[in-house]
Amino acid sequence: MSSSDPRSAVEDAGEVLPWRAPSLGGQEEPDGAMPLPTAEEIEAIQRQAWNEGYEQGRQEGLQAAERESAERIRALDRMLQEMARPLDELDERVEEELVALAMAVARQLIRREVKTDPGQIIGVIREGIRLLPVAAGNVRLELHPEDAALVRELLNLGEGEERSWHIHEDPTLTRGGCRISNATSRIDATLENRINQVVAAVLGGERVEDQS
Q1: Integer Cα distance of 147 and 203 in angstroms
Q2: Mean pLDDT for the stretch of residues 109-123
């Protein structure tokens, strides 16, 4: 007759098994799991990351400083150019004022001579005719009406007694000046042109031409 006692069954088998508590995690960790990093390894990783970030920040800072320096240099160059420009403009203004002053002085002197001695128009006419070719004929003499009357009076000429040259009255001419011409030549002895010649002898022709 067989026994129903389980202990006797285990004892009959001749083996006793140890008791194990059941696992609460569900699964047991495998024998080959990676170990956690140590404190030294964590510190090394942090130091490497800091060094890489520092180098990147340093490069960006250097590039920003170079851009700022270049912009400041350009700004300084623009400022120097702006400072030099007024000096150039001042030189031009001074030169223009000198030309204007010289022309004003010459104009006053010549006009005073004309007013003091109206008869000097005869000398102006003779000088102009002398510049024409020797064989020049049919000379046309343009004068202010008052100078035209003065020339006729000084030379005792009537209206039709002007011979090989004739007088043409031009009220737009300034007293003391004239224009003399023939078929091939033209002499500008106007008061304005003579003033320009006086100023040109002092300051040079280019600036006088600009003012005229």
Answers
A1: 31
A2: 72
